[in-house]
Amino acid sequence: MNNVEEIFQKSGAILKGHFLLASGLHSPIYWEKFQVLQSPSYTEQLCRMIATHFQKQNIQVVAGPTTGGIILAFEIARQLGIRGIFAEKEGATERAFRRGFSINPGERVLIVDDIITTGNSIRQVM
């Protein structure tokens, strides 16, 4: 498979109905990413698309927020042959790198997440 939507369809991840998102927004469609992320094969294929896109960007570390961002950060980093780290919640509005994770000054970082609605999780990782 070489199409994101096809991967989500095959995994049964595209749900239709009425969904109240964490942001407070409403949606008639919800892409349940964990239906994809539970399958190593689908996860590998999805992350291959992302890794290929950034392959020539000299990325040195891939970072993601907990929870779904961990899986993506690890697999993309594995495919690029670099470090994969994650930031954990710290209070209601911040995230922190713990467990000895750090980003060195000047390192080129790719930040990934499983779903982006408002961008708050990505901003917190930055």
From TrEMBL:
> Can you give the residue ranges of the Phosphoribosyltransferase domain?
40-126
Q: In which pathway does it act?
A: Pyrimidine metabolism; UMP biosynthesis via de novo pathway; UMP from orotate: step 1/2
Record key words, sorted: Glycosyltransferase, Pyrimidine biosynthesis, Transferase
Entry-linked InterPro entries: OPRT (IPR023031), PRTase-like (IPR029057), PRTase_dom (IPR000836)
**One Gene Ontology term from the biological process aspect of the record:** pyrimidine nucleobase biosynthetic process
Keyword Membrane listed: no
Q: What is its EC number?
A: 2.4.2.10
Any one GO MF annotation of this record: orotate phosphoribosyltransferase activity
> Which HAMAP family does the record associate with it?
PyrE
Q: What is this protein called?
A: orotate phosphoribosyltransferase
Query: What species does this protein belong to?
Result: marine sediment metagenome
Q: What is the lineage of its organism?
A: unclassified sequences, metagenomes, ecological metagenomes
